[in-house]
Amino acid sequence: MRKAIAVLAGLSAVSVGLTACGGDEKGTEDGKVVQVRMSYDGDDFMNQMTWMVAAEKYWPELGFTEEEEVTASPEYLAGLIGGDVWIAQGESDVIWAAVAEGSVPLTIVGVAKDTEAWWMGAVEGVDPENLEGLRISGGPVGDRNITVARNILEEIGVDPDSMEWVPIQGGSDERLTAMLAGEIDVAQLQPRHQAQLEKAGGTMFHQEFTEVPQEVWVVRTDFLEENREAVCNYIKGRVQAFQYASEGETFTDNRDEIVEITRDRGLEPTEDEIAEWEQEMETQLALEGGASEEAFDAWNEDMIANENVPEDFDWREHVDFSCLTEVQEDLGLPVEPGDL
Questions:
Q1: Shortest CA distance to 87 belongs to which of 242, 287, 215, 234?
Q2: Shortest CA distance to 294 belongs to which of 310, 266, 316?
C-alpha cells in the first residue's frame, strides 16, 4: 500500500477517543499558547536548521516563552491528531491523503518547500539514451517519487513501462545505496547525491526543478480556530528564519553564524550538508512560506491521479492562508498564494 495509506492507518487508531485539542493543555499559560510543539517527518540538516533559527532568534519574541518541543518521526501526523503536538510539517502527498481521510479535520496553513527536484541518475556504464529494460526505482510502491520518475522518463522520451520497476523502502539515500550495490541501474534521486554518485562513476543525467508545494505545515482545524495567534506567530518565525538563512547574493551571508547555532544545539552538519546550502535556499525551501495557486492546482491533479485523494478533492476547501498572507504583508514579501 502507499506510504500515505500506511500513515492513515495510524491516524485512524489515534483518532478514537480524542479529547479537546491540546490534551492536558501542556505549553499554555493563562489560556495562551507559549510553546511550539511540532513534529515533522525528516531530520535532515536543512529541516532542523530552519526551525532552530526560528527558535533561537524569533519565536521567543513572538510569545513562545517556553522551550520548544520538536520531534522528527514517521508518526508525526499521529502526534498531531492525538494532540501531542499542535503543528506538523511533512511531505504533501501524505498530508493530502490525511486531510482527505477526514476523521479529524486538518487545515494546511503554509509551505516549507515549494520546489521538487526532478533528478535522475544512473550507475557507471549505463547509457541514458538507452534505458529500456533496465532496473529503476522511485521508492516503495505508491511513493510520490515513482510518479516523478515516470514523468522524467516521459519527458526524455522513454516509456516508463519499458523498464523494470524495483520497490525500495526508504528514501533517496536508500535508492542510492541500492544503485551502488548493483541492485538497480537507474533511480530518482535528490541533488545531495550527485557528488557521491559521480565519485562512483555514475551520472546524474536529468536535473530539473519543478514548482510544487512539496512540504507543508498543517494543524488541526479546531486548534487553528481556538489558537489562531499561535499559528500565525509560528508561521512568522519560520518565514523570518527562512529569510535570515537566505540573506545575500549567494544566500550565505549568515551561514557560518547559523551553523554555530546548530552546533550549540547539538547538531553537527557534514561538509556535504553545508555545501548544499546555496542550492537548498535557491531551489528547495519556500523562502516566503507559500507557493503559487497554479502549483497547488497541478499538485492536486497529481494527488488525484495517484489516488491519494478522491477525484472530487478540492484543496482550497482544506487550506487557510490568512496567517501566511498577514506575515508576508508584514515582512514585505510577495503574497502567494494569498487568501482563497
A1: 234
A2: 316
Helices (H) and strands (E) in the chain, counts: 14, 10
Tell me, what CATH number does 169's domain have? 3.40.190.10
3-class DSSP state of 222: helix
Containing domain of residue 168, as a range?
116-210
Find all residues with CB under 8 Å of 137, minimum gap 6, and list them.
149, 165, 166, 167, 168, 175, 178, 184, 186, 187, 188
**Domain shared by 7 and 109, yes or no:** yes
Work out the mean pLDDT of the chain and round it to a whole number: 91
In angstroms, the CA 92 to CA 6 distance is 15
Q: How many domains does the chain have?
A: 2
- State the alpha helices, DSSP H only, in the chain: 3-14, 45-57, 76-82, 92-101, 144-155, 172-180, 194-199, 221-226, 228-245, 255-264, 271-275, 277-283, 293-305, 322-330
Residues 101 and 233 in one domain: yes
* pLDDT for position 44: 82
In sequence order, the 6+-apart residues with CB closer than 8 A to the CB of 335 are 290, 325, 328, 329
Is 183 in the same domain as 228?
no
Handedness of CA 41, 147, 156, 163 (dihedral sign): positive
The full DSSP string for 44-102 is -HHHHHHHHHHHHHTGGGGT--SPPEEEE-TTHHHHHHHTS-SEEEEEHHHHHHHHHH-
Q: Within the chain, which residues score under 50 in pLDDT?
A: 1-2, 5, 9, 12-24
